[in-house]
Amino acid sequence: MGSTDIYKCIIIGSGPAGYTAAIYAARAALQPLLFQGVEPGGQLMTTTDVENYPGYPNGVKGPAMMDDFRKQAERMGTEMRLQHISRSDFGSHPLRVWTMEGEEFRAHSIIIATGASAKWLGLESEKRLHGSGVSACAVCDGYFFRGQEVAVVGGGDTACEEALYLSKLCPQVHMLIRSDRMRASQIMQQRVRNAPNIRIYWNTETVEVLGAQQVEGVRVRDKQNGRVYDIPVKGFFVAIGHTPNSEPFRPWVETDEQGYIKTQPGSTRTNIAGVFAAGDVQDKVYRQAVTAAASGCMAALDAERYLSAAGLH
């Protein structure tokens, strides 16, 4: 099929949600076209060891797992394109999307599985040690730092959740907050303050993550007196939020104030008929590979039912 054809189902995104949606859509004879985007495999491509995904008893490297997902989707008959969708028009049917190169594609149903990107501090050392002690997900990587001291950067609910989770595994959690107050809800602030092994550093700015091959500490600056000092830690968790990759679709699909796509309760349906959303682009609560894959399955089933009801499949 070419760009002049109307696809039954187009899937945008190639993380666990997108690939799982493709597997189910292909098995349902929807002949899906999947756009892998500029970062095929999503966030897991920068993850080293994955030990919490079922079916890998000895763990697996993130890129290897995503390669398995891709191969399975291809074996089922998914057509894949290494292109990025930059624009959409969901104002009429068939639904239309455009690549960055300006090529137009049309479909009767579309599954948005573009994920969310973690926000980073922008430090060279943070980027260099990403996956070697630097992480943006305590639930994903906290297990590797059990029995060791770690640092968490951030002052919102996500940072509090990360710190509390790590406090169950680590003897000391150093929580670094740039200002003199948290943005988190009062209940989360109270839980953090009540945790005996979470130490809060107010007015503290991260200067550098220390270590050659692995994280060995974090260098910080006290913004009140200018003092610079080092905190020895083995793990450095950045918890300053995520940005959902929903920009190309926001003129049409409803999003919350942060940009996460809203889906109808108990489904992956958006406010636009025939448009579905799965994975981290619509999930700001769990953000796990296994939950993203599950919602990808749901989206493909929802799309198949929609197409059948509309007489398009």
Describe the fold and architecture:
The chain has 313 residues and is of the alpha/beta class. The protein has 2 domains: 6-118 and 242-309, FAD/NAD(P)-binding domain; 124-238, FAD/NAD(P)-binding domain. The chain has 7 helices and 21 strands. The chain has helices at 16-27, 62-75, 124-128, 138-141, 157-167, 186-194, 289-309, and strands spanning 6-7, 10-12, 33-35, 49-50, 60-61, 79-81, 85-89, 95-99, 104-107, 110-112, 116-118, 134-135, 150-153, 173-176, 198-201, 204-210, 217-222, 228-231, 235-238, 242-244, 275-277. Strands 6-3-2-10-21 form a 5-stranded parallel β-sheet, covered by helices on one side. Strands 12-19-13-14-15 form a 5-stranded parallel β-sheet, covered by helices on one side. It has a 4-stranded mixed β-sheet with strand order 1-9-8-7, with no helix packed on it. α6 (186-194) links the parallel β14 (173-176) and β15 (198-201). α1 (16-27) packs parallel to α2, α1 runs parallel beside α7 and α5 (157-167) runs parallel beside α6. It is elongated, with a radius of gyration of 21 Å.
Helix/strand-derived category reads alpha/beta
In CATH, the topology of the largest domain is named: FAD/NAD(P)-binding domain
Using only CA atoms, what is the Rg?
A: 21 Å
Order of helices and strands: EEHEEEHEEEEEEHEHEHEHEEEEEEEH
Low-pLDDT ranges: none
State the share of residues found in helices, binned by percent: 10-25%
Counting DSSP E segments of at least 2 residues, the number of strands comes to 21
- The CATH homologous superfamily name of the largest domain equals FAD/NAD(P)-binding domain
Q: Judging by the overall fold, what is the CATH architecture of the largest domain?
A: 3-Layer(bba) Sandwich
Q: Residue-averaged pLDDT, rounded?
A: 94
Number of distinct helices:
7
Largest sheet: 5 strands, parallel
Globular, elongated, flat, extended or rod-shaped: what is the shape?
elongated
Q: Which range does the strand content fall in?
A: 15-25%
**How many domains, as an integer?**
2
CATH top-level class of the largest domain: Alpha Beta
- Could you give the distance between the termini? 17 Å
Strand order of the largest sheet: 6-3-2-10-21
